[in-house]
Amino acid sequence: MATTVHDQGKVDALSRERCWFRNTSKGLGVVACFGYHPWFTHRYTLSPPSAIPSKRDHYTSLFLPHSSSNDNNQTLLDTLLPFLPDPTPLQPLLETLRRNLTTHLEEGRLAMLGEVGLDASARLRWPIEARSVWEEMYGKAKNKNQEGEENGPEEWKRLTPFKVPISHQRAILEAQMEIAIELGVNISFHSVASAGPTMDVLRSMKTKHGPRFTHRVNVDLHSAGGWSPQFWIQAQKSLPNLYASPSIPITSRSPSAPSLIRAIARDRMLIESDTHDATLNTRYVWAATEWVGRLKGWKVEGLPQHPGDGEEEEDEDWELESEEEIYDHRGKPIDPAPHEIWTVRTLERNWARFMRLLD
Fold first, then answer.
1. Strand partners, 250
2. pTM score, two decimals?
3. Residue 152 has pLDDT above 60, yes or no
4. Taking CA 20 as the corner, what is the angle to CA 17 and CA 26, rounded to the nearest 5 degrees?
5. pLDDT single digits (tens) 281-293
6. Is-contact 49 69, C-beta < 8 A?
7. Of 135, 146, 172, 182, whose CB count within 10 A is highest?
8. Which ranges constitute the DSSP H helices of 70-139?
9. Cα separation, 150 vs 225, whole angstroms
10. Rounded distance between C-alpha atoms, residue 54 and residue 87, angstroms
C-alpha cells in the first residue's frame, strides 16, 4: 500500500511480482494500492506546475496561516525551511495515480486507492537531516534519554507542532477519490481524529455521484478509524459501501474498541494487521480474527468454541462460491445466530464481496 510519491513504483513492482488477477480466487497475491497518505500532504501544492509557490510561501500558508501566529513557531519554521522538500504540484501526481490504476484494471489486476484519508492529529515530522539542529535546540542529553543511540538514524523520530489543515488534506483526498469513483476502484481510508470530516467527505461523494459511488466503490475504514460505536452505527446505515477493518496494534488502543467491533455489521467486517513489519502480518491478522470472533460470539476455526473446554469445534469443508446468504425483503442479509457463524469464512466472504470477486 503506497503512502508517498516514492512508494508508487515499489507497489507496482511488487504487485507484478505477486500477481493477483480478478479471475483468480486462490493463491498468494498482492492487491496494488496506489495513493498519497494524509501524513505527507504538506509536500503537495494545489497550484498548477506553471505557478508553483516558493517553499516559504507554501509552508507558511499551511503551518502559519494567520498573521498573528506564534513567534516561536515562525522561528522554528524558518529554521526547518532549508530541510523541507520543495512543494510538489498535485496535478502530475494525480496523472500518475490515474495511469497506475488504469493500467492495472486493463490488465485485469486487482487494485485500490490507498492509503488516503484525513488525520487531524498528525504533526509534521522533524526532518532527519535536521537532527543536529534539534540536538542544538533541545540538547543531546534529552535525545539520549528519550531514545538510545543504538537504534540508529532511521529510528530517530521527533514531531514538530505543525499540522496540515484539514481543508488542504481534504482537497488532496477528494481529488484522488474522484479518480477512484471514475474508475470504479475501492478505497482504503485513513481516518484519525476526524470522524466528522470523514463523514462529510463520504456523504458529499454520495450526494455528488449517487450509485456510481455507493454501488461501484467500496470504502474500508482503516483500523476502524477509532470511531465511536454510535457514530459507526449511523455511518453504516447511510453508506451501504462502508466497511471497517479493526487491527490489534491500533484499534485495541481505544477503550471503546470492543463496543465498536460489536457494532460493526457482520457483512461489513474486515480485519487487518496495520503493521509495516511483514514478519508480524500473519500473527496480527490471526490475532485480529480471534479477537473479532470472541467479541462477536462467533465460532473461530481451529479454536474451542467455549474457552476451557479443550476441544476444537469441527468445521466442515466449504467453498466460498457455494456460500449463500439469506436476505430479507429489503435485500439485506439476515444474520444467523452468533454461535452459528464461522469467523474466518465470514471474513473471507466479506473480503470477496468488498473486492467484488463475488456477484
1. none
2. 0.88
3. no
4. 120
5. 999 999 999 999 9
6. no
7. 172
8. 71-80, 90-106, 131-138
9. 34
10. 8
